[in-house]
């Protein structure tokens, strides 16, 4: 390897070995050959240059010519390292090397047992079923599912093959260089996608990377060309010469002769024939074309569809009698676009005509059956292998460390497309009879020796196609999740069953932290990044290709190397015996995959001191004479940056500081870090290398393990992490989820604020070609060992039940399996098995195995799992206390047994906890706050603390507390006497309202009256009367001041728990079983004053909630509601709202207003002695008083006090 140029995938910097030949000569010179005399002067000259560099100060340092590499020996390199680093303590920003460095390494142990060559993948036989090439670790089901999947290779004309393959023809090179432009030019649809422009607009030596986020759209225009001229399918309406003129005009940079040749090739395409037939019609506006989305051809052998199979054309008024079952109808002229959906079979040929020149159809669900499924599947079924407690996808087909011994690891690739989730979120097998989207496109990506695969020659178009096809499958999965989540009503949730969702990532993080709880903190943090120039990748490239052109090869070779790394670390124990581990696959900015391993070692392999650290990790440039190849690899893969003042534009720079704290300070010996990574030994030994025209020393070395670096020839960072106290940050780092685009949703205050997690994920997810093919191949992204089983915690009769939308709920309840759960079967096993009673619920999976198919526990034989009880919030009350009991009581046989202590069965789980002393002196709170820091991040801890302060104990006492508080509100005798003093209008309203209260008749009232007409006076009389009858009356108002003048008054938002963000589907924030719900159910009268200042959405929110808790379709569930207010005064606040928007926010515009019985109060009780003033105020409120400028009225002179400047001066004197 020494002496050969090399580059990384980004092509930014070339590795130039200028000293390989010199090393060879030096070696020969030591043996006494005739090169000694020739080399001695050069060596003396280089030594002087080195001393000058080491001793440079001030301006002397700038006199070194960075480009004059001939002055320096082979210790100077110019590699391009993958940008990577791990945060340590903050060190000084820049240092000069020390010339007085020692050359002897006293800790040579770390360099022992270096391999003599890099690890090379073994060649494995091709698939015996389809002949596809295999890489190590790919099981027999990887390519064709043992012969079940049979997809014919795309038939490509010879001329198209020449354009894709030829390395000598100028037009072929030009065609491949502009392949995406040509495909877009000849496609029948316009391609819509949001790209990362920094990566998609490669220049010079930069690497092109197709990185998309959000949805991908393929849109078809109307038949009649627009003002900008014909494009896409419209270009096929014309004769050859005319269409070439249009095409060259639209894309003048494309070669006209090449366009003509491609057009001739596509003449046999059925879609071209269909659109070309429209060129002879007179008026395109009168015509329509239907594109068949369910083309029926057998893809197990080549069958190009005929013209009449793909499209139907007709004129308005002459609709065909037998049109296609499902189709896209494109009209002659239309105001909207026509989208080709991801599930249409015409999706591929319409969008990628250069890949499907004959119009071959693509994938459609349940359209491509397995080949001979009846003969192949029974053999698999007879083996009776089930997936019951594997944590995720298997890490290695031959490595059983990740799954129990009584399960078959080779079944993983077979089941990957059959895996679903049950009601508890656990994976279950659902047999398929048709080829899935992943299987279809995985088969399309296979390498068949001797067969031409047009995708493999597509270059940049191949990257686009791969991302497009993966997003297609992603959308199909998301659409299923969206349909299931639509029943939630309040929030559209992306569940943890979807890999990569926030809930999935959080669940895996919690599982990983469970391993820490059981085995201790991790000891090693290993990060491996793919080297796109591995020999195995270069050997598979076609002539003229670079690794970026073959993301499929890069992904497969990386996966095979990763599996060997897994075996080398876990099974062979290179770093010691591993007790538990977790790994996550991620993808860099430019798409290269990298792996994070967190290893928890056995007690005998734990690292106890810095001396132990030096045995496994180095952060120095190795001696070039002793370890020439290792020196080359460190300079190529393990040098950070440069960044800082040397390169302020480096991606790691944030606020002019390197976020990885490079360069690091020199240190003569490794030291223990303070809640951080160790301070590794970085001596001033004079070792310097040239990186991007800058000279770097040991302070820039990323810690590495020499054996791993030599074995895998790639960036492989090895960090000692046992000294980090908050190890959850490590697990949070590796479980941070996919690369996402950052954006904000803007929404009007009055708009619906429904949270759609599926839409957010779909819009934000960023995907590169390598990640797309990695997922299409079905390679897992997560794994851990031992596996963690999430154990459900539910109250009696409240376990999760799975059923279909068409099932009768009565039948669901009666089904026997629906009555069993993991927890209830735990009770059953304890009642039948005396051995089982020794264990806590969370310890059960270590000794028993949960079989999801039969919903039962059986004795475990080998490979235990670790149990994790799902989280219960203290605000959940009884469920929280149930979880506390399950963590302390061994061998319970029932829920009643859990509540029994010393022969006494307590009525609630909380009471049982109190009797056992589990919650004495707030012990449950202490336990909760002690346990949470092991799993939760600071934000979640703060939220938990706030919840405990606000809701602790409410779930157990909330039901009675709410009622007791209202019942304790008494009434004053004076308020009862008010009834006799009501005026005529007030008395009429009082009698109507009390009639409905006494007779339980539903009605919504609104007391309308200007200020001073006695609305509050009426409320006090009603409240006193109802409460004197020992019935509940609730008094609320929009503001605290208005609520305080009513006995027992509270603000409406506090009493009804109205959410801050309101929409047309929001509900109040309390459950049907809460004390608030029971209080509202028992209330005889509910008063809401100043409702005229309230937005109608708040009132409608209470209406929906009341209908729900009362199970009634009547307004407010049939309760007697009394609103009060004055629309002549202040209306709801709408920031920067127009008059129309403010009016629309009032209760007057609500659907509720049609059900309101209005009570009018007109007599002003405050201004009885001045009726003229009261009438004047009323005219202003009614809008009939004379005004000017729309906003001003003239005050009468008799109510205005005259004043002059003298009065003001006198007042000031008086104040002094």
From TrEMBL:
Location of the region described as Disordered in the Swiss-Prot/TrEMBL record: 28-76, 363-434
UniProtKB keywords: ATP-binding, DNA damage, DNA recombination, DNA repair, Helicase, Hydrolase, Nucleotide-binding
Catalysed reactions, semicolon-separated: ATP + H2O = ADP + phosphate + H(+)
GO molecular function, one term: hydrolase activity
Domain spans labelled DNA helicase Pif1-like DEAD-box helicase: 982-1184
A Pfam family assignment: Helitron_like_N
Gene3D superfamilies (alphabetical): P-loop containing nucleotide triphosphate hydrolases (3.40.50.300)
Domain of life: Eukaryota
Keyword DNA damage assigned: yes
Coiled-coil spans in chain: none
EC number, as in UniProt: 5.6.2.3
Catalytic class of the enzyme: isomerase
Cofactor(s) the protein requires to work: Mg(2+)
SUPFAM superfamilies the UniProt entry points to: P-loop containing nucleoside triphosphate hydrolases
Occurrences of domain Helitron helicase-like (ranges): 484-599
Record's compositionally biased regions (Polar residues): 60-69
Biased composition (Basic and acidic residues): 43-59, 419-434
Keyword Chloroplast: no
GO biological process, any: telomere maintenance
Family assignment from sequence similarity: Belongs to the helicase family.
Protein name: ATP-dependent DNA helicase
Organism per entry: Paspalum notatum var. saurae
